[in-house]
Amino acid sequence: MDKGSFGGVVLAIGGILLGLTLEGGKIAQVMQPTAAMIVLGGTIGAVMLQFPFSVVLQAFGRLGSVFFEKSSGTEAQIDQMVAFANKARKDGVVSLDSEVQKITDPFLKKSLMLAVDGTEPQELRKMMELDLDNKAEHEEHIPKVFEAAGGFAPTVGIIGAVLGLIQVMQHLDDINEVGKGIAVAFVATIYGVGLANLFFLPSSGKIKMRIREDQIVREMVLEGVISILEGMNPRMLETKLKGFLAEEHEKTK
Q1: Average pLDDT over residues 52-62
Q2: Are residues 36 and 126 in contact, defined by beta-carbon separation less than 8 angstroms?
Q3: I want to staple 157 with a disulfide (CB 3.0 to 4.6 A). Which of 30, 74, 76, 189 is the partner?
Q4: Alpha-carbon dihedral of residues 193, 195, 197, 199, nearest 10 degrees?
Protein backbone atom coordinates (compact mmCIF):
# COMPACT_ATOMS: atom_id res chain seq x y z
CA MET A 1 0.00 0.00 0.00
CA ASP A 2 1.28 3.47 -0.93
CA LYS A 3 0.64 5.54 2.20
CA GLY A 4 1.58 8.73 0.37
CA SER A 5 -1.19 8.29 -2.21
CA PHE A 6 -3.88 7.45 0.34
CA GLY A 7 -2.70 10.22 2.66
CA GLY A 8 -2.61 12.72 -0.20
CA VAL A 9 -6.20 11.99 -1.23
CA VAL A 10 -7.47 12.21 2.35
CA LEU A 11 -5.56 15.43 3.03
CA ALA A 12 -6.65 17.10 -0.22
CA ILE A 13 -10.35 16.24 0.03
CA GLY A 14 -10.44 16.68 3.79
CA GLY A 15 -8.80 20.10 3.60
CA ILE A 16 -11.27 21.31 0.97
CA LEU A 17 -14.33 20.04 2.83
CA LEU A 18 -13.06 21.39 6.14
CA GLY A 19 -12.47 24.78 4.57
CA LEU A 20 -16.00 24.69 3.15
CA THR A 21 -17.56 23.98 6.54
CA LEU A 22 -15.42 26.62 8.29
CA GLU A 23 -16.74 29.18 5.81
CA GLY A 24 -20.27 28.27 6.83
CA GLY A 25 -21.00 26.01 3.91
CA LYS A 26 -22.45 22.50 3.96
CA ILE A 27 -21.02 19.38 2.37
CA ALA A 28 -24.46 18.63 0.93
CA GLN A 29 -24.12 21.77 -1.21
CA VAL A 30 -21.38 20.17 -3.31
CA MET A 31 -22.91 16.70 -3.47
CA GLN A 32 -24.58 16.95 -6.86
CA PRO A 33 -24.94 13.60 -8.71
CA THR A 34 -25.97 15.29 -11.97
CA ALA A 35 -22.85 17.48 -11.98
CA ALA A 36 -20.67 14.44 -11.32
CA MET A 37 -22.42 12.57 -14.13
CA ILE A 38 -21.80 15.40 -16.60
CA VAL A 39 -18.11 15.81 -15.69
CA LEU A 40 -17.20 12.11 -15.49
CA GLY A 41 -19.25 11.12 -18.52
CA GLY A 42 -17.95 13.96 -20.66
CA THR A 43 -14.34 13.47 -19.60
CA ILE A 44 -14.27 9.71 -20.09
CA GLY A 45 -16.05 10.06 -23.42
CA ALA A 46 -13.48 12.59 -24.65
CA VAL A 47 -10.61 10.36 -23.52
CA MET A 48 -12.11 7.37 -25.33
CA LEU A 49 -12.34 9.48 -28.47
CA GLN A 50 -8.66 10.47 -28.25
CA PHE A 51 -7.16 7.08 -27.36
CA PRO A 52 -7.76 3.51 -28.54
CA PHE A 53 -10.15 1.66 -26.24
CA SER A 54 -7.47 -0.91 -25.34
CA VAL A 55 -5.14 1.86 -24.11
CA VAL A 56 -7.95 3.40 -22.01
CA LEU A 57 -8.64 0.02 -20.41
CA GLN A 58 -4.95 -0.48 -19.66
CA ALA A 59 -4.74 2.99 -18.14
CA PHE A 60 -7.63 2.39 -15.76
CA GLY A 61 -6.17 -1.03 -15.01
CA ARG A 62 -3.00 0.74 -13.88
CA LEU A 63 -4.88 2.85 -11.35
CA GLY A 64 -4.23 0.22 -8.71
CA SER A 65 -0.50 0.94 -8.93
CA VAL A 66 -1.19 4.53 -7.81
CA PHE A 67 -2.43 3.35 -4.42
CA PHE A 68 -0.71 -0.02 -4.05
CA GLU A 69 3.04 -0.22 -4.52
CA LYS A 70 4.05 -3.73 -5.49
CA SER A 71 7.39 -5.09 -4.44
CA SER A 72 9.76 -4.85 -7.39
CA GLY A 73 11.66 -7.98 -6.32
CA THR A 74 14.82 -6.45 -7.78
CA GLU A 75 17.13 -7.92 -5.14
CA ALA A 76 15.63 -11.39 -5.65
CA GLN A 77 16.22 -11.04 -9.40
CA ILE A 78 19.83 -10.07 -8.76
CA ASP A 79 20.30 -13.20 -6.64
CA GLN A 80 18.75 -15.25 -9.44
CA MET A 81 21.05 -13.72 -12.04
CA VAL A 82 24.11 -14.41 -9.85
CA ALA A 83 22.98 -18.04 -9.48
CA PHE A 84 22.67 -18.27 -13.28
CA ALA A 85 26.16 -16.79 -13.64
CA ASN A 86 27.62 -19.38 -11.27
CA LYS A 87 25.97 -22.22 -13.15
CA ALA A 88 27.02 -20.86 -16.56
CA ARG A 89 30.58 -20.44 -15.29
CA LYS A 90 30.76 -24.08 -14.20
CA ASP A 91 28.73 -25.86 -16.87
CA GLY A 92 28.47 -23.33 -19.70
CA VAL A 93 25.63 -21.07 -20.84
CA VAL A 94 23.82 -24.00 -22.48
CA SER A 95 23.25 -25.51 -19.03
CA LEU A 96 20.80 -22.69 -18.31
CA ASP A 97 18.35 -24.26 -20.76
CA SER A 98 16.90 -26.26 -17.87
CA GLU A 99 16.22 -23.01 -15.97
CA VAL A 100 14.40 -21.23 -18.78
CA GLN A 101 11.10 -23.05 -18.30
CA LYS A 102 11.02 -22.13 -14.61
CA ILE A 103 11.24 -18.39 -15.29
CA THR A 104 7.97 -16.43 -15.05
CA ASP A 105 9.28 -13.01 -16.13
CA PRO A 106 8.67 -12.85 -19.93
CA PHE A 107 11.53 -10.43 -20.61
CA LEU A 108 14.10 -12.47 -18.67
CA LYS A 109 12.83 -15.69 -20.23
CA LYS A 110 13.15 -14.33 -23.77
CA SER A 111 16.61 -12.87 -23.11
CA LEU A 112 17.93 -16.08 -21.55
CA MET A 113 16.50 -18.23 -24.35
CA LEU A 114 18.38 -16.16 -26.91
CA ALA A 115 21.56 -16.47 -24.84
CA VAL A 116 21.18 -20.25 -24.55
CA ASP A 117 20.55 -20.49 -28.30
CA GLY A 118 23.99 -19.00 -28.91
CA THR A 119 23.09 -15.43 -29.87
CA GLU A 120 26.08 -13.11 -29.90
CA PRO A 121 26.06 -10.51 -27.08
CA GLN A 122 25.90 -7.57 -29.51
CA GLU A 123 23.00 -9.08 -31.42
CA LEU A 124 21.17 -10.02 -28.23
CA ARG A 125 21.53 -6.44 -26.97
CA LYS A 126 20.17 -5.01 -30.24
CA MET A 127 17.19 -7.36 -30.27
CA MET A 128 16.21 -6.84 -26.64
CA GLU A 129 16.80 -3.08 -26.72
CA LEU A 130 14.37 -2.96 -29.64
CA ASP A 131 11.93 -4.89 -27.44
CA LEU A 132 12.51 -2.37 -24.64
CA ASP A 133 11.96 0.60 -26.95
CA ASN A 134 8.73 -0.83 -28.36
CA LYS A 135 7.36 -1.55 -24.90
CA ALA A 136 8.39 1.90 -23.64
CA GLU A 137 6.67 3.56 -26.60
CA HIS A 138 3.49 1.63 -25.86
CA GLU A 139 3.61 2.32 -22.10
CA GLU A 140 4.09 6.06 -22.52
CA HIS A 141 0.49 6.32 -23.77
CA ILE A 142 -0.89 5.03 -20.46
CA PRO A 143 -0.14 8.09 -18.27
CA LYS A 144 -1.11 10.34 -21.18
CA VAL A 145 -4.69 9.07 -20.78
CA PHE A 146 -4.88 10.71 -17.36
CA GLU A 147 -3.02 13.79 -18.55
CA ALA A 148 -5.69 14.21 -21.23
CA ALA A 149 -8.44 13.61 -18.67
CA GLY A 150 -6.88 16.34 -16.51
CA GLY A 151 -7.14 18.71 -19.46
CA PHE A 152 -10.70 17.79 -20.42
CA ALA A 153 -12.29 17.72 -16.95
CA PRO A 154 -12.20 21.48 -16.17
CA THR A 155 -13.63 22.33 -19.60
CA VAL A 156 -16.40 19.75 -19.23
CA GLY A 157 -17.05 21.23 -15.79
CA ILE A 158 -17.62 24.62 -17.43
CA ILE A 159 -20.03 22.98 -19.87
CA GLY A 160 -21.91 21.57 -16.87
CA ALA A 161 -22.02 25.02 -15.26
CA VAL A 162 -23.39 26.59 -18.44
CA LEU A 163 -26.05 23.90 -18.71
CA GLY A 164 -27.05 24.67 -15.14
CA LEU A 165 -27.21 28.39 -15.85
CA ILE A 166 -29.46 27.74 -18.85
CA GLN A 167 -31.91 26.07 -16.50
CA VAL A 168 -31.61 28.98 -14.06
CA MET A 169 -32.42 31.52 -16.75
CA GLN A 170 -35.77 29.84 -17.23
CA HIS A 171 -36.78 30.75 -13.66
CA LEU A 172 -35.84 34.41 -13.47
CA ASP A 173 -39.26 35.20 -12.06
CA ASP A 174 -38.27 33.61 -8.72
CA ILE A 175 -35.15 35.32 -7.38
CA ASN A 176 -34.69 32.76 -4.59
CA GLU A 177 -34.60 29.90 -7.05
CA VAL A 178 -32.15 31.84 -9.23
CA GLY A 179 -29.67 32.12 -6.35
CA LYS A 180 -29.88 28.43 -5.53
CA GLY A 181 -29.66 27.46 -9.18
CA ILE A 182 -26.49 29.48 -9.77
CA ALA A 183 -24.84 27.87 -6.74
CA VAL A 184 -25.71 24.40 -7.99
CA ALA A 185 -24.56 25.22 -11.52
CA PHE A 186 -21.01 26.03 -10.39
CA VAL A 187 -20.64 22.69 -8.60
CA ALA A 188 -19.85 21.10 -11.99
CA THR A 189 -16.90 23.48 -12.35
CA ILE A 190 -15.65 22.44 -8.90
CA TYR A 191 -15.90 18.79 -9.88
CA GLY A 192 -14.02 19.36 -13.14
CA VAL A 193 -11.17 21.36 -11.62
CA GLY A 194 -11.03 19.13 -8.54
CA LEU A 195 -10.85 15.86 -10.46
CA ALA A 196 -8.19 17.25 -12.79
CA ASN A 197 -5.87 18.59 -10.09
CA LEU A 198 -6.54 16.18 -7.24
CA PHE A 199 -6.85 12.91 -9.14
CA PHE A 200 -6.16 12.74 -12.89
CA LEU A 201 -2.90 14.72 -13.11
CA PRO A 202 -1.35 13.31 -9.89
CA SER A 203 -2.29 9.77 -10.99
CA SER A 204 -0.55 10.36 -14.31
CA GLY A 205 2.64 11.39 -12.52
CA LYS A 206 2.59 8.39 -10.19
CA ILE A 207 1.98 5.95 -13.05
CA LYS A 208 4.94 7.44 -14.93
CA MET A 209 7.12 6.66 -11.91
CA ARG A 210 5.85 3.08 -11.69
CA ILE A 211 6.46 2.52 -15.40
CA ARG A 212 10.01 3.86 -15.10
CA GLU A 213 10.69 1.51 -12.19
CA ASP A 214 9.65 -1.45 -14.34
CA GLN A 215 11.82 -0.22 -17.22
CA ILE A 216 14.89 -0.01 -14.96
CA VAL A 217 14.35 -3.60 -13.82
CA ARG A 218 14.16 -4.79 -17.44
CA GLU A 219 17.33 -2.86 -18.29
CA MET A 220 19.04 -4.56 -15.36
CA VAL A 221 17.89 -7.99 -16.53
CA LEU A 222 19.23 -7.37 -20.04
CA GLU A 223 22.58 -6.21 -18.69
CA GLY A 224 22.73 -9.29 -16.46
CA VAL A 225 22.02 -11.77 -19.25
CA ILE A 226 24.60 -10.17 -21.56
CA SER A 227 27.18 -10.19 -18.75
CA ILE A 228 26.51 -13.89 -18.14
CA LEU A 229 26.91 -14.56 -21.87
CA GLU A 230 30.23 -12.70 -21.82
CA GLY A 231 31.42 -14.80 -18.90
CA MET A 232 31.58 -12.10 -16.25
CA ASN A 233 32.64 -13.15 -12.77
CA PRO A 234 29.50 -13.69 -10.58
CA ARG A 235 30.78 -11.35 -7.87
CA MET A 236 31.47 -8.62 -10.39
CA LEU A 237 28.02 -9.24 -11.88
CA GLU A 238 26.36 -8.82 -8.50
CA THR A 239 28.17 -5.52 -7.91
CA LYS A 240 27.26 -4.32 -11.38
CA LEU A 241 23.57 -5.17 -11.04
CA LYS A 242 23.29 -3.63 -7.58
CA GLY A 243 24.20 -0.34 -9.22
CA PHE A 244 20.73 -0.46 -10.79
CA LEU A 245 19.16 -0.38 -7.32
CA ALA A 246 20.68 3.04 -6.65
CA GLU A 247 19.69 4.14 -10.16
CA GLU A 248 16.13 2.96 -9.61
CA HIS A 249 15.75 4.94 -6.38
CA GLU A 250 17.40 8.00 -7.90
CA LYS A 251 15.30 8.11 -11.07
CA THR A 252 11.98 7.60 -9.28
CA LYS A 253 12.45 10.37 -6.71
Answers
A1: 92
A2: no
A3: 189
A4: 180
